[in-house]
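Notes from the pairing session

We agreed to fold both candidates in a single pass and log them together. This is the raw record for the first candidate, unedited. Please don't reformat it; downstream parsing expects exactly this layout.

Candidate A
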Amino acid sequence: MSSPLPPTAFDRADEQPDALFYVMPRMVVHIDRATLEALTTYYSDVLFENADVLDLMSSWVSHLPESPPLGRVAGLGMNAVELEANSRLTDRVVHDLNANPTLPYDDNSFDFVLNAVSVQYMKRPFEVFAEVARVLRPRGRSIVAMSHRCFPTKAIRAFHIPGSAERYRIVSLYHDHCGEFDGVESLDRSPEGADPLWLVVAQRCE
């Protein structure tokens, strides 16, 4: 799939294979406690009972609420130890999206695909979000949460920018480009005095 962004937008300081970077578990988070709670609260507002969820680029914690009770919670990430430590997951797959953007799930498998503070690491996002649309059910939602912290050497050049406006634009473009989403919206749920919480939410077309 062609990209409407220049190739240099996806350059990184560290271009070694991601499998080397993530070979050791990294039990960290990119946002502070207040912002984590704000993200969990947002999820509790939009998720519905028995929803099937894909936690894309998952790790040792998914920030999901205790209520409502969910159905399947699939986790796709880079480190098996991290995924095994995540008690919210019902199934786990180690998979490098930068090496292979094809998601190992059937069409129409999920009601929600969540990506929490990891979209900045994608080198092939247009292919990935076309796959997100494929595995979502009609009217299912993609929710991308962003903030201002990251592993800087692994974040693409396009995300080494201050503020939210350009990040909203880029992640909205990721959704729009595949032509399978409508109603793309940007939300600021940043708690006062805490790390920012910027959300891009898109709904798969019928």
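Candidate B (folded immediately after A)
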Amino acid sequence: MRIASWNVNSMKARLEHVLAFLGTDKCDVLLAQELKLTDENFPTDSFTKNGWHVETHGQKTYNGVAIISRYPISDVTRGLPLLVEQDAEDDHARYIEARIDTPDLGMIRVGCIYLPNGNPCPGPKFEYKLRWFNRLHAHAASLLESEEKIALCGDYNVMPQAVDCYDSEGWTGDALWHEDSRAAFFSLCNLGYTDAIRAMHPTGEQYSYWDYQKGAWQRNNGIRIDHMLLSPEAASCLVNAGIDKEPRGWERPSDHTPVWCELR
């Protein structure tokens, strides 16, 4: 099976792009971020009429995540568990998790992530980003206890290494390149999760985002902030992974493009 993750930057604006991508048979499960729609306004019928199963965790104007699957979806969780009382104030729709039952691989648990950007840094938004990372870390650790196949995928808003940016020095002071953001990302890997893209492509650029400004796409001034982290049980099934640049070149595209991994 193939899992794809894509920050669509508005499902309303990018619906035809998403449907076209799904129509190419490039994935069996799509994890979508930044829907910018409530659950009630999500175009569920556009997917279900073509046989896709859909679960959403939406929000008006901002955020929003969804799981779109060929296979049945069950055991759905919306939002991360709370760690401290301050987390109870967090009403952002940034995480959805579910069980997917597949005919070949059996059950796999997927988590769709839209991690906070964190800018300006330092400041309250960066502090929120790190708290959210802490909640994700605690939950990711608890998931490993199940010894299930797990894929935690999405827009992490972190460039882990210098190779993941066209000019890392130019991003000094930005929350996406801050040492605390990178440390938080690698703390997830150190739990036992595998970065699927780097497992298949250990060197070289693998960009997933190009800003709309300053000709970033045309000049290939990209960064890698969309990641797929696999539990040991899922990583043992990993046969391929990559980034599909084609949708970034479509008319009125998202500034992100799909990342994917194939499990067998």
